[in-house]
Amino acid sequence: MNTPDRMTVFVRGLTLAVGIGVYDHERGRAQPVVVDVELTVEPRLVDRLADTLNYETVVQAARRIADAGHVDLVEQFAQRLGEACLADGRVISARIRVEKPEALAGAAACGCEMVFNRGAV
Question: Where does the chain cross the membrane (predicted)?
Answer without folding.
Answer: none
